[in-house]
Amino acid sequence: MSKLFRMVILGAPGSGKGTISTRIVRDFGLKHLSSGDLLRAQILKKTEIGLAAQSYMKGGQLVPDDVMVKLISSELSGLNASPWLLDGFPRTRPQAEALHNNQKLDLVLSLEVPDDVIVDRIKGRWTHLASGRIYHTEFNPPKVPGKDDVTGELLVQREDDKPESVRHRLEVYATNTKPLKKFYEDLGILQVFHGTESNEIWPRVHKYMQRHIPAKSGPF
User: Fold this and answer.
1) pLDDT in tens, 80-105
2) pLDDT tens, residue by residue, 37-68
3) Are 218 and 199 in contact (CB under 8 A)?
4) From 6, 23, 121, 125, active-site residue
5) Among residues 23, 91, 93, 121, which one is catalytic?
6) Separation in Å, CA 41 to CA 35, 99, 108, 147
7) From the candidates 45, 104, 143, 158, which is the catalytic residue?
8) Ramachandran assignment for 6, one of left (phi > 0), alpha (psi -120 to 50 degrees), beta (any other)
9) Distance CA 208, CA 19 (A)
10) Is position 91 annotated as part of the catalytic site?
């Protein structure tokens, strides 16, 4: 069963999706596919899909469904014999329907973290723009407040990480995801996990996933 196991993880920005995904990959042996990583790789390679996506992103627009579907479908076509976890896609119901027509999922996990918790979590992020190093005032503070550990240069808070921007992103996510979750709920493969911290949510995710695929290790 694990050979063909395919799943998607949903979660708002700052919900801990990356942390949970990493642990799923570690404990269940799935290949992790991040739509953001795939997009960046295509842009760097200057492929047709990458150039198309970049033109929208430069204009501050979302990458259209058809471009994202082509990108993901192309990547998944080479993984027919591998179990995988898809993160960051689908983001809309049309994307989910297109994926369903090509690949049948076994499980969709949705991480539900209160908006106020996410805003508090993200507003503590500070970035060294030149290197991309990210710090957090609470979880991963720089050695010298406001300065990069390696270069000593000033850290900045990205516009996307400011509270008002985070709240807007959460509203957009909720609007897009409601019909998406309904689609998977109707298919009978959606499982929702509520919590405020990854370490609180993870043992429940691990226990639930063992109903579908044997664990190699974990949960801690």
Assistant:
1) 778 999 998 998 999 999 999 988 89
2) 888 888 888 988 889 888 888 777 778 888 88
3) no
4) 125
5) 91
6) 10, 21, 25, 29
7) 158
8) beta
9) 17
10) yes
Reply yes or no on whether 167 is catalytic. no
Q: Which of 6, 23, 93, 169 is catalytic?
A: 169
Q: Is 132 left (phi over 0), alpha (psi -120 to 50) or beta?
A: left
* Alpha carbons 158 and 154: distance in angstroms, whole number: 13
CA 81 to chain centre: 23
- One-letter amino acid at 19 equals T
Q: Look up residue 181 and give its two tokens.
A: 């979750």
Q: Which of 47, 104, 109, 107 shows the shortest CA–CA distance to 80? A: 104
Report the pLDDT averaged over residues 62-80.
84
Q: Supply the angle between the helices 163-187 and 115-122 in degrees, to the nearest 10.
A: 130
Whether residue 158 lies in the annotated active site: yes
Q: Which of 70-84, 122-136, 160-174, 193-207 has the highest mean pLDDT?
A: 193-207
Count of helix runs (H) and strand runs (E) in the chain: 8, 7
Helix/strand/coil percentages in the chain, nearest 5: 50, 15, 35
For the question of residue 147 being annotated catalytic, the response is no
Residue 1: per-residue pLDDT: 41
Which position has the token pair 């991040």?
34
CA 70 – CA 64 distance, rounded (Å): 10
User: Is 58 a catalytic site residue?
Assistant: no
